[in-house]
Amino acid sequence: MPHPVSPINATTRPPCGSSGSPRVLVVSAGDAIYRGYCLEQVAAAYDVVLLTGTEPSWEKPYIVDHAVADLSDNTALLAAGRELAARHTLAGIVTWDEWNLVPTARLARALDLPANSVEVMRGCRNKATARALFARHGVPSAASMKARTLLEAGLATMSIGYPAVLKPAAFAGSIGVIRIDRPEELADAFEFASAGASQSREDTGVLVEEYLDGPEVSVECVTQHGVTTAVAVTRKSLGPAPYFDETGHTVDAADPLLTQVAPAAGAAVKALGITDGVQHVEMRLVDGRPRLIEVNARIGGDMIGHLVRLATGIDLPRAAADLACGETPDLTPTRHGAAGIRMLYPAASGTLAARQVNQPFVAHTPWLRQLQWTRKLGEQLLLPPKGDLFTARAGFYVVTGRNTAEVNERLDTAADEITVTTQAGR
User: Fold this and answer.
1) Around 62, how many Cα atoms within 13 Å sit in the side-chain half-sphere?
2) 262/331 Cα distance (integer angstroms)
3) Shortest CA distance to 197 belongs to which of 179, 173, 170?
4) What kind of architecture, by CATH, is found in domain 8-123?
């Protein structure tokens, strides 16, 4: 059962206005590979009106109307949102796009639709603000100091000590996040973190933080009227140090860790002022006790929402839409299994020369639920420090099983049947 912290494949959609379903505005559906399941599951229950940065393609079967605007331009976004609101009676607004959390909150306020405030979303997006709120509310986190220059970073490490973590104050995907173990590593690490931070539209600062030594997990939460329910815990696998690239995830409906980490996740959500929505709460277990990394105020990436549904039957995209429209989501588990995803990375950076899979194995292995290539032959795959998760991954695969042990065994079995080969540049 979910742990309370406190007491269809659509191919066509009906013409606009004919279905009678509530109408929800989705801001930025994302890409088909990693976020297609979100739009599909919402469209199974709602008429979807889409606000997007590019003309829809794969989204067309799941939407009844759309508008295209530069989502980084507040004026253009508000104008397009008002245009859609003039054509439709909207029940709510939702996004699962990290980069559009603040713009979506701003648009919700302009359209008088229920949503978390712009200020709350800014706090979720900015790790320095979140750390301060965690400290104020007694949520166990990490010591953290902001550094605009290398000199300030050096002074921060004198206070925080080693090992330390440098990261962008407001970015995502572990881009620009690096661990350092000694002072002589600081200059290169600060340059690496600064390069990641420079891509942010919100804050280009760097944080120097205490390294939390322990396994990393995330807690998938649903919050309504300020009451948070932890529905699943995701156990994470990371790539080689000093980077923090996520290489895989597992979700088990019967994971005993859920009851241990749920209270800390709920406290973090409350500290940030979130009252409604779906959250992906990241933490590390230090000496077995939760220490917060961050709260993402949207469905987790890397297909985590899909894993939750495969393992528990709980539909997080539907829950997010329900909450946006003022409805109470159904969080009753209908499945009691486990699921996992593993990312396909090359052994070394280079040109993708071959991507091979044992086809008879795929055809006769029902627990291999999905094998997805995300890069084409001839494309460059760049691992850190020159690359990141967007440039390094060649694809991923998803498996199911009865429990975590079986899922991990099957992830390893499938790995032996899949090969990613790169060729060094000439």
Assistant:
1) 25
2) 15
3) 170
4) 3-Layer(aba) Sandwich (3.40)
Residues 112, 276: contact at Cβ < 8 Å? no
Name beta bridge partners: 146. 207
3-state helix vs strand vs coil in the chain, percent to 5 = 35, 30, 40
**Residue 69 structure tokens:** 């605007």
For strands 368-373 and 23-27, give the pairing.
unpaired
By the 8 A CB rule, do 420 and 394 touch?
yes
Q: How far, in Å, CA of 280 to CA of 299, rounded?
A: 6
Per-residue pLDDT of the chain (426 residues; tens, 9 = 90+): 444 443 323 333 443 334 578 999 999 999 999 999 999 999 999 999 999 999 999 999 999 999 999 999 999 999 999 999 999 999 999 999 999 999 999 999 999 999 999 999 999 998 889 999 999 999 999 999 889 899 999 999 999 999 999 988 776 667 789 999 999 999 999 999 998 777 767 667 889 999 999 999 999 999 999 999 999 999 999 988 888 888 999 999 999 999 999 999 999 999 999 999 999 999 999 999 999 999 999 999 999 999 999 999 999 999 999 999 999 999 999 999 999 999 999 999 999 999 999 999 999 999 999 999 999 999 999 998 888 878 899 999 999 999 999 999 999 999 999 999 999 865
Structure token digits, residue 165: 């973590």
- Please tell me the CATH code under which domain 143-210 is placed: 3.30.1490.20
* CATH fourth-level superfamily of 339-426: ATP-grasp fold, B domain (3.30.470.20)
Q: Which residue spans of the chain are classified as CATH 3.30.470.20?
A: 339-426
Domain with CATH 3.30.1490.20 in the chain: 143-210
CA torsion angle 300 301 304 306 (round to 10): 110
Cα(218)–Cα(232) distance, integer angstroms? 9
Residue ranges matching CATH 3.40.50.20 in the chain:
8-123
Identity of the residue numbered 163: P
- Which of 303, 305, 230, 301 has its CA nearest to residue 268? 230
Which residues in 287-301 are b (16+ Cβ under 10 Å) and which e? eeebbbbbbbbbbbb
Please tell me the distance from the alpha carbon of residue 330 to that of residue 314, in angstroms, as a whole number: 8
Residues near 94 by beta carbon (within 8 Å), at least 6 away in sequence? 24, 25, 26, 27, 42, 104, 320, 321, 323, 324
Phi and psi angles of residue 308, each rounded to the nearest 5 degrees, phi first: -60, -40
